[in-house]
Amino acid sequence: MIREMLFMLSGQPGALFVLTDNGQFEMCSGIADVGLCQSEKEIIKPLLKIGSNVAFLSNFAEEIKSDSLYLDVVQQSISKYVTEFQEELVEIEIAILEGSEILGITGIHSRIMPFTLQLEYLKELVDAIKLQKGNCLLIDTIQHYRDHCGVSRIIATFQEIYNTCLKVLHKQLVSWMLFGKLLDPYNEFFIQVDDSKRFVITGEMIPSCLTVSLAQQVLFVGESVVALTEAQDLSEEDWEFMGKLQKIPFENVVEIIQQCRDQMAKRLWNLVTEKDRLNRSLNMILNTFLMKKGDIFAYFIRQTENIFDGQFSSSQLASNQFALQQRLMNSLKKYLDEDETEIERLSMNITPDTPGQGWDRVFLDYKTEWPLGVLIFTPETMETYNRIFRLLLNLRRIQLNLNGLWKNLALLDKPVLELRWNLQHILIHLSQYIQIDVIEVQKSIMDRQIDQCHDFDKFRAAHANFLVVIAAQTFLHVPAMQACFKDLIHLALKFCGLFKNDRPKAFLSVVAELNLEFERLMQLLFSLLNGMYQQSSGTTMEPIAQLLLRLDFNYYLTEGLQRKTNQLLEI
Amino acid sequence: MPSEVITLQLGQCGNQIGFEFWKKLCAEHGISSEGVLEDFATEGVDRKDVFFYQADDEHYIPRAVLLDLEPRVINTIMNSPYAKLYNPENIYLSKHGGGAGNNWGSGYSHGERLFDEIFDIIDREAEGSENLEAFTLCHSIAGGTGSGLGSYMLERISERYPKKLVQTYSVFPNLAESSDVVVQPYNSLLTLKRLTLNADCVVVLDNTALNRIATDRLHIETPSFTQINSLVSTIMSASTATLRYPSYMNNDLIGLVAPLIPTPRLHFLMTGYTPLTNDHEETSVRKTTVLDVMRRLLQPQNMMVSTTPDRNGSHCYTSILNIIQGEVDPTQIHKSLQRIRERKLAQFIPWGPASIQVALSRKSPYVTTSHRVSGLMLANHTSISTLFARTLQQFDKLRKREAFLDQFRKEAMFQDSLDEMDDSRDVIQNLVDEYTAATKSDYLSWGMNRPGSSAAGAQTSA
């Protein structure tokens, strides 16, 4: 009986005590109550509970699933506690065999009492852990149990487990911050590699012993180390400074993350600003993607005006792309005061499988000098620049086309002159808004933020903000506005097309139609802008008001639309 | 394609202002008086190829043709330090050397005689450019050569180069003082006809206003030619700033002109410039912000055209382009536009959309100025017609008396009749009428029922 009991307590089922399906020990019926006095009968229940817990815990500890570094260490800890308990049982057994002590069930019970609570708590913890995936958030779960427990012995147990998990996190942090390597075979760290091979933070994976801003600093330090290692630009001093991370306890690691970040930010700043490459790239982007150097594109557009004439077929893709690239290079070499190698970092391509006419499918590819492409001018960033570029390029193209008509128009009728004037007005002042009120203003804000700045991360934040605001204020994320711009560009192209060949017979009636279409578009544009204006507040309101002021400086358009509406109402 | 511009300088006045213009351009681009790039001129942000070309020996040579019928001014240029700047083959002095005697008719018939020689030069210069965009003519409308020869050249160039832009910087006579050229109203009116019909864009430089500005704003009691011409060259160089220091827009002449001119005839532009300084009082300029500059540009006393005060208040802007140079805080641009609109500092046409276009341009790094920001306004304002109306009045006074017509009758064009004069009068009257019509909301239907009124060619008033 006693032997069976000890066996059960060590988590093993026997003849007398069997495990039920739900993992609980119970005594076999029939043999029950044999030779047990009343007090022993009372004690047997908690003993069964202990046995069940031990069985559960050792089961957990022995499970070979190992898909988590954190779970591994928790398993090890649990295994240790189970072993400790089982050793106690062995000692009890020896004592019984030697007869040195007379131990009944009550005796055993009182010997193992100190373990009861610990095993119970551990089971609860494991229950909770089993509900979540193994990752660095286990730390939080363990912390929760530690902080909600009033028994000092148990607190110490949880603290021990907590510390072992923290060690895993520590190792992961050090590996990342010191070597730029993710020591994370099971994706348990709060920094992960995303689809585009970039390092990103998974916000919900940040354990509560770190904050979001600390996590960002950690990310930054690692990225910097990657960049600096590739550049073979880490110095002895850096190693010495960062090496501390390995030797100090976790609490102190948290304290020096900020210092590491500052150190790396400075080092990286020096790296990217070496030979002025950051400024150079930024100017290159400003002059090309944002088309500040207008003469480059005036030349380019004239050289490429006929490339997309006629049907745009996939068989012509390669030759068109070649022609574009060649002319872009010519234009840049002619009008941009830059080295050939720098210029050749830029290329113009056509996306093969998106719908739309040729010019809606072009994009610029800028191979920035390493490590700018990884750290700042990432593929997403460049895609946003490209969207702005396509809008600006189209606007510019139409303006040049309209200007090209100007000498012709001198001979033509008033409705034609009127439409040209109206189209030109909208295109110029829309461009003025984007170029001055948006790009130049945001550029000056960014310049102010990075002036005197020797910190890479601050620069990155300023640049990110620069682009986000430009994208928002050019309504890149408002499909209705983009569609409206597109229609306007299309209308203007149609108008210019009227003059390409001989004057068609129905010339004036086509012009009249286009005039009507223009009015409709203006009505749409103004109602869109007014609608957005009414729904916005504060800083989002201002740019809309600025565009409205530009477009309708002499109130002609809104008053005209008002007149039209009144006329319609009268009819 | 640099969109080159060839400058034609005609007569005394044209050559004087042209001379000052090239002096200024050389200074701004760091080119020495002999056409050599200075050692300090290393900032490659400017574009020189619109106005200069490079000879084999790397010399920068102005795309300029200098023409005169009398030698005085051209000789002065050839005795100046800038003598070696120009291509000597582009300097044409009539062999007679007698000038046009302040007679439009004489200047015009000189043109007919000298056609081959002059156009040899112009054609060669045009062929030498990769993508010639425009001719710019500098002249005065009141004398003999700039007005007469200038008129002849405008007619021929628009025939010979129908696709090229023809822009002029035309100096209008000072009406505040009596002129020794008694036939000035005839000369002016005959030239104005060609400026109306054969030029695409005329920048009016009004000597009356220039003298007023020199006395009132610069406190020069009796402004010299040189002082006035320096004002003119400031305007000419600033108005080409966006071509020479390219930014987002307005990188070619058509890009400057097309947004300003809505219909073919309304192509006479006024200019304003601020802050104005002269050599003696560099310190007279206070702080200059973008708002200051944009506001001052709208003040009549800064306009380089003397219009008659508008009693009805009906005259208005058709379009405005402000070229702002220097260190500009771009956030100020919107604030300035807002202020101008709120305070109704500029009245615009009632028949179409209109606004103030702003071009931000660099300042030459090689020329030091005492002010941070400067601005030039190119504006199309209907009140410029009052200047033409004054010319008409003066013309009518002489014409009624048939005064001083003898010297015109000597020329072939006027031997049989004076129809050309009366025809010119009609064209200008029509121009004045069209500007007046442009102040009203039904301008776009104005003249629609007159056959051929919106077609090219001479107009006849209804």
Give the structure's gist in a few sentences.
With 571 residues, chain A is mostly helical.
How would you describe this protein?
Chain B: Keywords: Cytoplasm, Cytoskeleton, GTP-binding, Microtubule, Nucleotide-binding. Chain B: It is found in: Cytoplasm, Cytoskeleton, Microtubule organizing center. Chain B: InterPro entries: Gamma_tubulin (IPR002454), Tub_FtsZ_C (IPR008280), Tubulin (IPR000217), Tubulin/FtsZ-like_C (IPR037103), Tubulin/FtsZ_2-layer-sand-dom (IPR018316), Tubulin/FtsZ_GTPase_sf (IPR036525), Tubulin_C (IPR023123), Tubulin_CS (IPR017975). The complex is a heterodimer of chains A (571) and B (462). Chain A is mainly α and 571 residues long. Chain A has four domains: 1-131, no CATH class; 166-274, no CATH class; 275-377, Up-down Bundle (Four Helix Bundle (Hemerythrin (Met), subunit A)); 379-566, no CATH class. Helix content of chain A is 69%, strand content 4%. Chain A is built from 21 helices and six strands. Chain A has helices at residues 2-9, 38-62, 69-98, 105-131, 138-147, 152-179, 212-230, 236-247, 250-273, 277-288, 294-304, 317-335, 340-343, 372-375, 379-409, 414-450, 456-473, 479-497, 507-535, 541-551, 556-570, and strands spanning 17-19, 25-27, 191-193, 199-201, 346-350, 362-366. In chain A, the strands form three sheets. In chain A, strands 1-2 form a two-stranded antiparallel sheet. In chain A, a hairpin with a 5-residue loop joins strand 3 and strand 4. The model of chain A has no long low-confidence stretch (mean pLDDT 87). Chain B is an alpha/beta fold and 462 residues long. Chain B folds into three domains: 4-261, Tubulin/FtsZ, GTPase domain (Rossmann fold, 3-Layer(aba) Sandwich); 272-380, 60s Ribosomal Protein L30, Chain: A; 388-447, Helix hairpin bin (Helix Hairpins, Orthogonal Bundle). Chain B is 39% helix and 16% strand. In chain B, the strands form two sheets. A ten-stranded mixed beta sheet of chain B has the order 5-4-1-6-7-8-9-12-10-11, with helices on both faces. A two-stranded antiparallel ribbon of chain B has the order 2-3. In chain B, strand 6, helix 4 and strand 7 (165-172) form a beta-alpha-beta unit. In chain B, helix 10 packs parallel to helix 11. The longest helix of chain B has 24 residues, at 104-127. Chain B is globular. Chain B starts with a strand and ends in a 25-residue tail after the last helix. Chains A and B meet through helix 11, helix 15, helix 16 and helix 20 of A and helix 9, helix 11 and strand 11 of B.
